[in-house]
Amino acid sequence: MRVALDYTAALTQQAGIGRYVRELAQALAPLFEPEERLVLWHGRLPKRCAGPRPGGAAVQDVELPLSPEWVTRLWQRLRAPLPLEWFTGPLGLSHGPDFVVPPSRAPSVVTIHDLSFLVVPQYAHPRLRAYLSAAVPRSLQRVSAVIAVSEQVRQEVIEHYRLPPERVVAIPHGVTTGLAAPPVDQSRRTLDRLGIREPYFLMVGTVEPRKNHMTALEAFSLLAPRYPGLALVIAGRPGWLSDPVMQAIRAAGARLPVRYVGPVADGDLPALYARSVALIYPSWYEGFGLPVLEAMACGTAVITSVGGAPAQVAGEAALVVPPGRPEALAEAMERVIDDSALRQRLVQEGQRRVPSFSWERAARQHLELYRRVARG
User: Fold this and answer.
1) 31 — phi, psi (to 5°)?
2) Is beta strand 145-148 parallel, antiparallel or unpaired with respect to 108-112?
3) Cα 111 to Cα 160: distance, rounded to the nearest angstrom
4) How far apart are alpha carbons 103 and 296 in whole angstroms?
5) Same structural domain for residues 307 and 363?
6) pLDDT for 9-20, tens place per residue?
7) Angle, nearest 10°, between helix axes 326-338 and 213-223?
């Protein structure tokens, strides 16, 4: 069996879906039988996007003679019927890990990461919302199975698209192998280099309205006067509609110890997690919430939104609050500061929970699904 995996996001996105595709491919490659192949296909990219690829005899790399933009235009916007096999050769299965699948003669599966474009459309870019609203239903008609990254997303897909429950399977993300708190001296050197002083709460994620930085800033403004020296550190690249959020961050930083450090390299994130009082993750909507899992792996307490996928990921390892109530978030932050036994319990629960989320486990579940779908 030859399995085609769209590897474009792995080469063009550092976080989010890009990380999912990289980690999945890396974990899948060693699991393939000698007669099986993992075909990583992508559009033509500049050399600077070369990026890492898994090694091994099972892996084949196929570059299409079109840019990723033209690939999307060809298959998703113009709906050209040209099958993927025209570029890759015969396939046993095609996996679209980024919401859509190309035309293929082989059975297909698709990964749906969230339905923000339907559930909270006000937080989705209008062009992306229009594209996914049209492209996702077409892909769902093509595929034999749907992978949802959480049980929340699985239920949303079943409900919104009225799919048979047996066609939709939840396979959660894993945590990067070896991700853990670095030695204390190494962590402190990282903080010094980034200009961060302890103690601090941490927010990680793209700066955009859906992540709910506004509530975090309001909560911190309620808390900070009672805890001199306490800071709020915000890490992440600016995203869609980030200007009002960035203005609020700058305004808060002019009167409070709020520090925006921008996007942080993967190698520095464990130190930021490990030395923080807690990760605060009060998003309005998430399909999974990888920073919650990463924080738990690094021995960090978590405060997140009630009822969503991040709360499902954390289980008993997080305090949960309504995302629109800054006073509730401030109260939870205060509890974590003042109650060391509570903080330690959250950390221990997180450490117990993390082994349930591994990329090897996720890859085995993907491969089992591939083989079942390919057999028909």
Assistant:
1) -90, -15
2) parallel
3) 15
4) 40
5) no
6) 999 988 889 999
7) 60
